[in-house]
């Protein structure tokens, strides 16, 4: 039966680039979203303009609430579910060694991992994150728990076990041989890729090949993974990793990668050019289904290569603040034409909510030096957290906005559940210019949104529920 959801609709329509998001912003204060029995959007527009065919539809009246596309988190760590706000680390490499590797090692216990999978899905539903690229656990039983729980709860996911073949002592439990790394990754693809429907075009579950970062693997691993990827690319398998996150001089991540591989740029290690002097050693891991997190310290040639290959950047400013990683240069990165989406990077970031990520994006880019400072448009913020994420996952044709024919992934926001948000929405100054007033309302919504205001979450028109079972 067709459902009719009523509320103030905001979405970025069509398929614009980030720079076109402002003119593609749709705001319908007295809006209606109709979802047919198969979970597809059949109407999005003014309530007053609803065609008579919807007269008998089941009405869900969310007014004075808002309807937004479901949030897309393109970089989040499942085995860090309980590791947000880890204290005693420092910047990236020390934090990994002292906080994160020990934390992730706890997933060796199947019961612990299963409990984390429940909590992870709960946190995602509470935050309205309907689709996500999830950096997985090293342990196959933990990944099984994650995929099974995600399927049970009705969320979308792309995930793969985090691959590590070298590392410090604290990562010992997470490290496998080169052979096992390849075998376990291949097994995961065979077990879980499109396991729910048997067809990537309709599946909610997808698998990625996930080398943790270049410092956790070797040229041997990268060569093997390049060949594996080449053999499964046409099955719609993904690639996920980290790039150019920490550039502390001499001892940071970027310097260590260049020193370990002898490459000109960090990106070369993922692009098959991992031999000394960036000589070709194997096949590239880049492409339309590849997402690289952070990219704070990229050279122009790296941005160009990502744009050329269709590789996306998961922008994670909350994490970059927490780990002191610096600020991704917004104007320069956008100008390269690379697709940029949003990532919480939980537990490098300490927020599950994508709205918090785009809010911090606004703040850090406002604070860039001199002419690089920029005030992001609220439509760009919404785009970053929704449609750009769907694009990064190469599923823009399926979700990310309310265009007719797409699968109905959306959240209901009731400002009244968060008094500070309600105050900003109801009593904030609004311009007499209609367009500016719309921007002000969307900005207030994205800046002030907190989990309790997300009262309903839908994937393919089906309502999902937080179970709070692991509290
Ligand atoms: N680089 C390698 N591993 C990680 C991780 O777990 N989190 C972050 N933020 N960066 C990484
Ligand atoms: Zn990360």
From TrEMBL:
EC number: 3.5.4.3
MF term (GO), any: zinc ion binding
Keywords, comma-separated and alphabetical: Hydrolase, Metal-binding, Zinc
Cofactor(s) the protein requires to work: Zn(2+)
Residue stretches making up the Amidohydrolase-related domain: 66-418
GO terms classed as biological process: guanine catabolic process
GO annotation, cellular component aspect: cytosol
SUPFAM superfamilies cross-referenced by the UniProt entry: Composite domain of metallo-dependent hydrolases, Metallo-dependent hydrolases
PANTHER family: GUANINE DEAMINASE
Record protein name field: Guanine deaminase
Gene: guaD_1
